[in-house]
Structure formats: C-alpha cells, structure tokens
Amino acid sequence: MNEPAPTFSFGENWTSYLSQADASAFEGARADIITWLGEKGVSGKRILDLGSGSGIHSSCMYFLGARDLVSVDLDPKSVSATRSLWERAGRPASWTVVQGSALDRPFIEGLGQFDIVYSWGVLHHTGAMWTAIENAAVAVASGGLLWITLYTKGANYPVHHELKRRYNRASPLGKWFMLRREIVRRMYWRFRVYQNPFTWNHRVTRGMDVYHDLVDWLGGLPYEVASANEVVRWARQRGFILEQIEARGEGGCSSYIFSRI
Fold first, then answer.
1. For residue 139, pLDDT beyond 90
2. What are the residues whose beta carbons fall under 8 Å from the beta carbon of 231, sequence distance 6 or more?
3. Neighbouring C-alpha atoms within 13 Å toward the C-beta of 63
4. What is the C-alpha end-to-end distance of the chain, expressed in Å?
5. Cα 129 to the chain's mean position, in Å?
6. How many C-alpha atoms does 219 have within 13 Å on its Cβ side?
7. Do residues 147 and 141 make contact, with C-beta atoms less than 8 angstroms apart?
8. pLDDT in tens, 163-186
9. Are the C-beta atoms of 116 and 144 separated by less than 8 Å?
10. Does residue 144 carry a pLDDT above 90?
C-alpha cells in the first residue's frame, strides 16, 4: 500500500511551538542536554544537530559552549525557526544553520566530522530510517558521540501507522476533530488519576508541551520504528559502544548515546 503524501508539516508545528515557547521551554531543553551529557559535555565540542526542528536544542548547545555548531533540517520552516534563534543569539559565526537531508550522504559527508551528532526524533521520519542512521553515524568523529532517539517497535505499529495515515488524509476540520479527541482522552486520563484535567497542556521532557507533541504524534509521516536490540546490534556492528540508553515502550521514543571507537 502506498504511503499518502503527508499533509502535516513538522516545520509549521515547530514554528507554532517556538512562537509560544517561554523561558521554561529553553530551561527544559537545557536540563535535558545536561542530564545526558553533563554540565560541561557540550563545551568546546563540534556538534551536528541533525533535524533541528524549532532550534531550541541548538540554541541551548550554543549557549552551553559548543565550539562549532551546525544545525540542519530539511523543512524550510524548521530552518527558518532555527535561524530565528541564531539571529537572536547575535548571528554567531560558530553556529551555522543550513537546509539539507539526512538521506543525502554526500551532503552529510561534506559537513565534516563532529564530536557529537545529535538527532532527536528525526531519523524515523525520513522514509529510510536505517539509511538516515547510517548517514548520521558517518559524521561522528573517532571518539565522538552519536545521540539519537527513535520510536520504539511494538505490536501496535500497524494501528499507529494507520492513525497517522488517516490524519494526513483528513480535511482541516477532520484533523481538528482527531486532535480534540486525543486531547479529551488526555484530560480524562488526568481526571482518572486525580490530576487537574484542565492543566493537560503542561511542559514535558526536553521543554516540549503536550499540545505540540500530540500534533507531532498524529501527523508524523513517514513513520518507522526500531527495537532497542536492533539499534544496539546495528551500532556494535559498526564499531560503536553503547554509553547510555533510555528504553521506552511502544509509542514512545527510546534514546541512545553511542561512542565511536
């Protein structure tokens, strides 16, 4: 069965998110980086943010002391969002924002080698996930880190995939109703666990909020998944060592940091 042409724009969602992101969003993103890499883990490093989205994580890495930072995204609106934060930072020469694809091997190779290659929730949306992971790995320098996050494989993949297909086929009104249904479900869950259902749109990990996370979940096509065993085995076969892992259940994103020998 052919994949429907996506009508959802990651860039539009990221631009919307950035327009209302306050200091807590930036602090959440900064805290996440420090949790994984440590207080000084970014300082003095050459970093590739592959799929920069809103640009918030790139911005945090810049202010955490990255020596040389390259932010890449395929979606022009994500590039624009990231560039707006680059401009807010004073247009630093050490931070470059470019449009490009994780599937374009010559482009990735042309960027050079990096101490940290970071790609959160991006490579599984390229339509050729393992090729994208391979290309990201090519950019990791010897002794460097590959930090990626991928949707976790599970039995409900066909159901989740079809949900995303329906959302992308839906009219604007249909999308509105599908999103509101998910919001009501979230509110009901909070009510069941004795939490205020009207505070459903709170900050979640990495500074994201629930609303834009739900939009991303519903609209995100292409959509591929991988088990932790598959990802770790792939990495070991290519000379990477697992340093950290946060394995989440199906529907969530598992995070991995590998070091290159």
1. yes
2. 133, 148, 150, 254, 256
3. 17
4. 41
5. 13
6. 21
7. no
8. 999 999 999 999 999 999 999 999
9. yes
10. yes
Domains of the chain with CATH codes: 10-153+223-260 (3.40.50.150), 157-219 (no CATH)
Q: What is the pLDDT of residues 38-49, one digit of tens each?
A: 999 999 999 999
Token digits of residue 107 = 């482009």
Residue 36 clears pLDDT 60, i.e. is over it:
yes
Tell me, letter by letter, the H, E, C secondary structure of the chain.
CCCCCCCCCHHHHHHHHHHHCCHHHHHHHHHHHHHHHCCCCCCCCEEEEECCCCCHHHHHHHHCCCCEEEEEECCHHHHHHHHHHHHHCCCCCCEEEEECCCCCHHHHHHCCCEEEEEEECCHHHCCCHHHHHHHHHHCEEEEEEEEEEEEECCCCHHHHHHHHHHHHHCCHHHHHHHHHHHHHHHHHHHHHCCCCHHHCCCECHHHCEHHHHHHHHHHCCCCCCECHHHHHHHHHHCCEEEEEEECCCCCCEEEEEEEEC
Q: What is the pLDDT of residue 67?
A: 98
Q: Is the pTM of this model over 0.85?
A: yes
Which amino acid is it at 17? Answer: Y
Interior angle at CA 205, CA 201 and CA 207, nearest 5: 70
pLDDT for 3: 63
Cα separations (Å) of 15 from 4, 10, 34, 41, 85?
24, 9, 25, 28, 11
